[in-house]
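hey
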């Protein structure tokens, strides 16, 4: 785990966008795993800027989104289909047929989940996966108690998540209760994981994810098992980390570190 702490979420998002751009530049047909929510908005803004101003080319990329609310059609303004189109896809040159987002309205969720996993495999897996973190420590919609080996499936959202997401809906009772989500096991198979977190509401989840035991209680703690994960955390979200000084020290000393460390 590489923990990168910074003052500004915007600056951290730009650094994370550069990591993604490096992957796309070195492998034009890269497979990108994407997240929704407020956390990756600045990252997507920067990718759009890189596309518009620097010609970052997504024309051979494939994308897989983490999750979607069950029951919301792609044109619902709170669906993750709508979010991705508005905040990224319509601004870059990704071919629509290369975009994969779980369906919130399929007639057969079981078959859809199997197909989604199979499509990821057919594309030789995800090169780099973007993640946010819920205030209850979830990644994608893998709520507390989700198996760390879980695959794409339907999940019942935790009350905390429903409350957190109520801000996006007209009425709290409009927030969907179920979601279709990649599993923790699916996520751990991506070559590189990038998790972003900002704001004090994420501080406990970040402390549990980085310094707590690996546990289904905080599914983001599964990142401790991954050989290549980068965590971009602003100071408010990092406030409860016990080893804060050490993570900062590592970043300060990075320029002089032997190659490969
Ligand atoms: C969304 C997702 C969720 C969010 C998390 C944080 O695709 O996978 O795990 O990343 O709920 O949401 P925000 O960024 O809105 O705080």
């Amino acid at each position: 785990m590489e923990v990168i702490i910074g003052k500004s979420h915007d600056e951290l998002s730009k650094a994370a966008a550069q990591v993604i751009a490096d992957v796309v530049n070195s492998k034009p047909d890269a497979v990108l795993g994407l997240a929704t929510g407020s956390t990756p908005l600045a990252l997507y803004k920067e990718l759009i800027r890189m596309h518009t101003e620097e010609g970052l080319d997504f024309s051979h990329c494939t994308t897989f989104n983490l999750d979607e609310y069950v029951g919301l059609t792609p044109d619902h303004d709170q669906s993750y289909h709508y979010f991705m189109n508005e905040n990224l896809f319509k601004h870059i040159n990704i071919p629509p047929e290369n975009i994969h987002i779980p369906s919130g309205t399929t007639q057969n969720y079981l078959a859809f989940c199997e197909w989604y996993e199979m499509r990821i495999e057919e594309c030789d897996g995800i090169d780099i996966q973007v993640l946010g973190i819920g205030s209850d420590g979830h990644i994608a919609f893998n709520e507390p108690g989700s198996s760390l080996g879980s695959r794409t499936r339907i999940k019942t959202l935790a009350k905390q998540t429903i409350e957190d997401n109520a801000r996006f809906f007209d009425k709290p009772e409009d927030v969907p209760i179920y979601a279709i989500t990649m599993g923790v096991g699916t996520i751990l198979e991506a070559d590189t994981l990038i998790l972003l977190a900002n704001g004090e509401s994420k501080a406990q989840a970040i402390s549990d994810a980085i310094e707590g035991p690996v546990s289904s209680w905080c599914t983001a703690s599964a990142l401790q098992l991954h050989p290549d994960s980068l965590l971009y955390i602003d100071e408010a979200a990092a406030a409860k980390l016990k080893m804060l000084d050490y993570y900062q020290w590592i970043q300060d000393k990075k320029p002089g570190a032997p190659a490969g460390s």
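The two ends are 12 Å apart (CA to CA). The beta strands are 2-6, 31-34, 62-65, 67-69, 99-100, 128-131, 153-156, 178-181, 192-197, 229-234.
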